[in-house]
Amino acid sequence: xxxxxxxxxxxxxxxxxxxxxxxxxxxxxxxxxxxxxxxxxxxxxxxxxxxxxxxxxxxxxxxxxxxxxxxxxxxxxxxxxxxxxxxxxxxxxxxxxxxxxxxxxxxxxxxxxxxxxxxxxxxxxxxxxxxxxxxxxxxxxxxxxxxxxxxxxxxxxxxxxxxxxxxxxxxxxxxxxxxxxxxxxxxxxxxxxxxxxxxxxxxxxxxxxxxxxxxxxxxxxxxxxxxxxx
Length: 230
Fold this sequence. Notes:
By secondary structure, the chain is mostly helical. It has one domain. Helix content is about 75%, strand content about 0%. The protein is globular and about 60 Å long. The N and C termini lie far apart (about 45 Å). The relative contact order is 0.18.
């Protein structure tokens, strides 16, 4: 591949990235019409499963973080451990925040989420070397759990903004979280298959490097944007 073609791909990729960032807020979750009377569990499940999937599907910051986790994983087993650690973290903090046991201002949380993307993108860049991927799984899982706790506060804020009837709180939290997990699994599966396909033609390394540059750039963009909005 010529240098000129690589440059064109890079420029078009960055243009697409910043276009996506500028449109991200247009895909906000809809506010549900709350009912004072009890609803059937299937109705609650459908509403909040859908909202959980929508939140992760258009949550560009969460997807960027997940992409970094995919790059960090050296095998499918390692990836499963990594995603599990993230799930444990965000599920815990999401429940604690949603039920009022933890109360933290959301703007700083959103800024820290953005910075977590920068940190993970940097770590993933470093660990692209196969030898460096043999780092302590326990250490990395612990770090990811901590970041998961932070992302969970963002998920809880999104669920509250949708609207939840008092009598549906437990079910709404459960199904919204399941929706988030379904979205995560779909996204991670696509990324893993994509990386595996590129690996067969020897392009996985450069694709990962390019995407990490875009992801890290997006992380800095969100960080500056969110900090300036305090």
